[in-house]
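pasting for the record
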Amino acid sequence: MRNSEVAISIQNLSKYYGKFQALKEISFDIMRGSFFGFLGPNGAGKTTTINTVTGLSNYQEGKVRIFGYDVTSEYVRSRPLVGLCAQEFNFDPFLPLHRMLTYQAGYFGLPQKLAEKRADELLDRFQLTEKRNMKYRTLSGGMKKRLLLCRALIHDPEILILDEPTAGCDLELRYHIWDYLRQLNKEGKTIFLTTHYMEEAERLCERIGIIHEGHIVKIGDKKDVLKDQTLEDVFLELTNGK
């Protein structure tokens, strides 16, 4: 990889939807192996930022790089380095879980035997082995959340990006997902987590960035950000958005 220290570099990024500016020259870096939390109320720009990093959305100004690779001009290099766990359950409704995961691995060039092995390992890790030949519509909500993580990890990416992964989860499932994420981070995965749950960011993340109305209003070590009293209005909006 071109740059082994900076996992994600976002510089002066601006994104427009027509005349509406969703992102306003935001800049920050996420270091390799770190656990970064990206907080903001609904509509602040969290998902838009993720979409630009993962290539799901274009942007008008700025630069986004994954380990030094430009996500637009060098997407063949950058995209396999990232696994995305989105909010929606956008699975193929006709495929059983194991086959769905092996097909997903094929998009990243994994040979069939390796893809099947990875699918077996992930289904076992996330306690879905007994469901391997079932279709996703038969799963509970919690199982679908775990399947999202399996799919994001099937090609063993360096970076895991999670867009509000515990939204709508009950407390028990939320704690289980937190345990999974802590372990993945210990194993060396760089994790970029968006959330509007203050407790989630406080328990999991080392560094936190706060985005509000398309602006980065604060970024730094967790303790420094959470004790900043100038962010009281944003924190209140986050709390009310749970």
